[in-house]
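Fold this sequence, please.
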Amino acid sequence: MWLTDLHIPGQEGAWALHIQDGKIQTLAPAAGPNPASAAAHGFGSLSFDGALVFPGLINSHDHLDFNLFPALGHSRYTNYRTWGWDIHSKNAADIAAVLKVPQPLRTLWGIYKNLLNGFTTVVNHGVHLNTTGAPITVHQQCHNLHSIGFERNWRWKLNRPASAWPYVLHVGEGTDIEAQLEITRLLRWNLFKKPLIAIHGVAMTEEQAARFHALVWCPASNYFLLDRTAQIERLKTRVPIVFGTDSTLTAPWDCWSQIRLARMEQAATDKELWQMLTVTPAAVWGLTDRGMLAEGLLADLVIAKPGLASPTSGANPHTEPTMDAFFNLTPDDILLVIRHGKVVLFDPGLKEKLTQTLGMENSFQQAGPGGKYVPGDITGLMQHIKEVYPEVKFPIG
């Protein structure tokens, strides 16, 4: 398959990609072959009239089975423990209603959230989930501990003999002194110097950051709970930073609004924020076959209409105006998502082209009226969820 007349954010000129056997075989700064030439060689060809193309994004933190929850919180908190106690006290019935939905259904809904936002890889935090047949990659090759505050026997779990996978946990999720001291306790008890990946790190100092393998930045979740986020401008010099969306318990379904919030922080350049979504998490999680558009890597990629210009574009001295089209995207702008060389999402406007050019089988269904086409029975999934949880408010359909 050839994809032609595309623009890579931050780079000049038109580009063409040739995908075969699940990988990018050719990436060339040219318009690519014409449809007749591609067909003569047995390849389909799609031209996109200058649309954006970029690597499938990597979401470094989500709780896939928690994305049916509405945002729960009643104030700004000093740490995650006071938030947890508060919502379990005041929202027990709401929480119970969501948890009645069988976990496989909740998990699949979380997978669709990531797909519809252009993520082709997501790192799940929590219990190991069965994600066989998922249209995106769900990375679970890590040791998940919730937090020092809520994980029973965390010291033993951290120091027991185990694989070399990193240990991932919510760390420093607060604005009080206890949140900072919690990080010190974790580091002190990491007796065998296991690789640690911190989620949130709002209270983290530069000295503490240097002792972690990576930090997952979730600004939308942080602001919802704490009205503050991690000091990325300082921490980024001491530890690799990757981006996470968190679940809808504390952050919006629209992950692009979260990305724009991160950009508005002015704590990272456009290039650094781009890398937090692509090449840096690929390295952090050991997924070195993705995260870039490069020949020989997996064909995980997204094609989208350029996002509309924002009135604040260019106001940040760290930003690069040529990247505005990427950072102003919305889920509606996504035209095509490819994972491992196979189409896993397409815009209704591409249906005829895909059917004629690539001979795609009819195994896709629209995510709501006029929505994107995705594999599987998303309508049936929503109906099953609603039967169990009638109060649900879907952001699509």
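The longest strand covers residues 45-55. The chain is about 30% helix and 20% strand.
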